[in-house]
User: Which sequence fits this backbone?
């Protein structure tokens, strides 16, 4: 059995052409053509009808592929299982994450990962701003928000709700906004250096320019100021869920709730990803958004 040639056959069927199959397998078109020719000689059967524009699988080819596909899947699963049994993950992983999110959610997941893989060491680097993965030596990072165009590889693992909130005493004194435009009459807690900023809502709410007398680059500081009555705040739900449960804040404008914040895992492209990092990517993807008040993708 030549597993390599069988995989070429399935790739041609899945991708629809020899060229697309070569691209998906990261092989040359010539090597894909040679593999199919060798397989046809081995089986003494015609697998594809070839024209100048396309290849069409024969009935015998489709029947043969249906039989070997699950068998190849079992071979791959058996190989991975054996590797996991005899090869222990080992080495160091350096993970980056936003300060508040990383401390509350990434840290305990990393601890569970280390409990399973006893020969792995992990370092969690927390920062308010996105770190340059190459310069900081980061193997894997958690990013909140829309990703700019970059050469990083990314995997979206979920979304986080964003809410607008404030202290009950603040709203008792200043009134409750019923539409995002009402925020013009309120002090808003700002997360930028500028005097004002634009808050976006869903389509019914649009974008609103807000101003306020308290601003900070720290999410924790902004949330604490809103709790203390400095104005209306806006944050991902995970940052303020405990405050909401305790009655220290209330949410407003729920029917205009802003678009959710995407949660991504990112890592460097163009270089091999160690198995310990690939395993952690899957581990984080399965657990990261659960418990944050967000939605898994």
Assistant:
């Amino acid at each position: 059995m030549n597993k390599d040639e069988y995989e070429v056959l399935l790739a041609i069927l899945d991708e629809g052409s020899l060229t697309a199959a070569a691209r998906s397998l990261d092989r040359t078109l010539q090597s894909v053509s040679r593999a199919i020719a060798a397989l046809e000689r081995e089986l003494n059967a015609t697998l594809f009808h070839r024209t100048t524009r396309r290849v069409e699988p024969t009935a015998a080819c489709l029947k043969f592929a249906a039989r070997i596909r699950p068998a190849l899947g079992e071979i791959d699963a058996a190989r991975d299982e054996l590797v996991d049994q005899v090869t222990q993950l080992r080495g160091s992983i350096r993970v980056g994450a936003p300060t508040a999110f990383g401390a509350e959610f990434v840290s305990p997941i990393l601890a569970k990962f280390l409990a399973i893989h006893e020969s792995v060491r992990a370092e969690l680097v927390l920062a308010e701003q996105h770190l340059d993965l190459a310069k900081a030596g980061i193997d894997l990072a958690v990013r909140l928000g829309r990703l700019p165009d970059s050469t990083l590889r990314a995997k979206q693992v979920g979304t986080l709700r964003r809410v607008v909130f404030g202290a009950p005493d603040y709203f008792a004194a200043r009134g409750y906004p019923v539409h995002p435009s009402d925020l013009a009459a309120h002090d808003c807690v700002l997360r930028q250096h500028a005097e004002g900023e634009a808050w976006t809502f869903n389509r019914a709410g649009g974008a609103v320019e807000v101003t306020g007398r308290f601003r900070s680059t720290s999410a924790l500081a902004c949330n604490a100021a809103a709790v203390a009555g400095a104005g209306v705040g806006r944050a991902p739900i995970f940052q303020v869920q405990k405050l909401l449960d305790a009655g220290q804040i209330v949410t407003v404008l729920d029917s205009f709730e802003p678009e959710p914040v995407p949660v991504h895992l990112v890592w460097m492209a163009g270089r091999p990803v160690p198995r310990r990092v690939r395993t952690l990517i899957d581990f984080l993807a399965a657990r990261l958004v659960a418990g944050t008040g967000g939605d898994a993708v």
The two ends are 39 Å apart (CA to CA). Residues 59-86 form the longest helix (28 residues). Residues 103 and 126 are 8 Å apart (CA to CA). Residues 3-86 form a domain with the Arc Repressor Mutant, subunit A fold (CATH 1.10.10.10).
